Amino acid sequence: MKVALIVAIDKERGIGKNNDLMWHLPADMQFFKATTSGHIVVTGRKNYDSIPERFRPLPNRENAVLTRNSHYEAPGALLFSSLDACLEHYRNETERTVFIIGGGQIYKEALAANVVDEMFITHVHGTFGADTFFPEIDANAWNSEIVSTHAKDEKHAYGFEILKYVRKS
Ligand SMILES: NC(=O)c1ccc[n+]([C@@H]2O[C@H](COP(=O)([O-])OP(=O)(O)OC[C@H]3O[C@@H](n4cnc5c(N)ncnc54)[C@H](OP(=O)(O)O)[C@@H]3O)[C@@H](O)[C@H]2O)c1
Predict the structure, then answer these.
(1) Mind spelling out the 3-state secondary structure of 8-62?
(2) pLDDT band at 112, cuts 50/70/90?
(3) CA dihedral sign of residues 28, 104, 147, 123
(4) Is the distance from the beta carbon of residue 14 to the nearest atom of ligand 1 less than 6 Å?
(5) Is the distance from the beta carbon of residue 102 to the nearest atom of ligand 1 less than 6 Å?
(6) Order of strands across the sheet that contains 78-80
(7) Alpha carbon of 107 to ligand 1 centroid (Å)
(8) Which of 2, 10, 58, 132 is most solvent-facing, going by the fewest CB within 10 Å?
(9) Strand 62-66 vs strand 142-150: parallel, antiparallel, or unpaired?
(10) pLDDT per position as a tens digit, 140-164
C-alpha cells in the first residue's frame, strides 16, 4: 500500500475557512483530479460535507470518509471510524494509491502517524485568513521537487507552484 497526501496551502499554511476552500484555481483542481483519479481518496467528514452534493462521491475514485458518527450516511462512499481501520482495509492494495485529501484533522493525524510516503503540496502565493491549517513539516525528512509552476492569469487570481515531497528512507 502506498499512502500519498494532496493539499493546497497558502503562505501561512492555511487550507480553509468556514469549511470551504479560500481560492478558485482551476488548474490546481485539474491537477487534483488527474492525480487522484483511479485511486482511493480518504477524507474527513467535514471536508466531505463541504463538497457540493452533486460532486460527491468524487467520481472515478473510491471515496473513504472518516467519521466517529455511526449514523452518518454518505451514499456511494465507504465509512471508517478511524484512520487505522481505514488503512487496515487497504493494506493489501497494490494497484491504487491511498490519497489523504484532508481536511486539517485528517492531514494532522496521518502525518503524526507517520504513514505518508509522499505528498503533493500546492503552494499558493497569498494569505487568506484561514481558520484551518496544514501541520508544519520537518523539511529534513522529505526530498522535494517542483512538479509545475503557474503564474497568475485571467483565470487564476494567484500564482502557485506544485511540489512533490518523498519521504527520505
Ligand atoms: N486546501 C486544501 O487542499 C484542503 C483540502 C481538504 C480540506 N480543506 C479544508 O479543510 C477544512 C476542513 O478540515 P477540518 O479539519 O475542519 O475537518 P476534516 O479533517 O475534514 O474532518 C474532521 C472530521 O473527521 C472525522 N474524524 C477526524 N479524525 C477522525 C478519526 N481518527 N477517526 C474517525 N473520524 C475522524 C470527524 O468526523 P465526525 O465529526 O463526523 O465524527 C471530524 O469531525 C475545510 O475548510 C476544507 O475546505 C482544504
Answers:
(1) EECCCCEEEECCECCCCCHHHHHHHHHHHCCCEEEEEHHHHHHCCHHHCCCCCCE
(2) very high
(3) positive
(4) no
(5) yes
(6) 78-80, 62-66, 40-44, 97-100, 2-9, 118-124, 160-167, 142-150
(7) 8
(8) 2
(9) unpaired
(10) 999 999 999 999 999 999 999 999 9
Whose CA is closest to 63, among 82, 85, 84, 37?
Answer: 37
What is the C-alpha to C-alpha distance for residues 169 and 149, in angstroms, rounded to an integer?
A: 27
pTM: 0.98
The residue contributing the CA closest to ligand 1 atom 8 is 103
Q: Report yes or no: 150 and 36 within 8 Å, Cβ to Cβ.
A: no
Whether the ω angle into residue 52 lies within 30 degrees of 0, i.e. cis, is no
Rounded to whole angstroms, the Cα distance separating 2 from 60 reads 18
The backbone torsions φ and ψ at residue 35, rounded to the nearest 5 degrees and listed phi first, read: -75, -35
Average pLDDT, the chain: 97
Instruction: Tell me how far the alpha carbon of residue 95 lies from the centroid of ligand 1, in angstroms.
Output: 26
Distance CA 62, CA 78 (A): 8
Q: What pLDDT is stored for residue 169 in this prediction?
A: 82
Domains of the chain listed by start with CATH number: 2-167 (3.40.430.10)
Atom of ligand 1 nearest to the CA of 104: 15
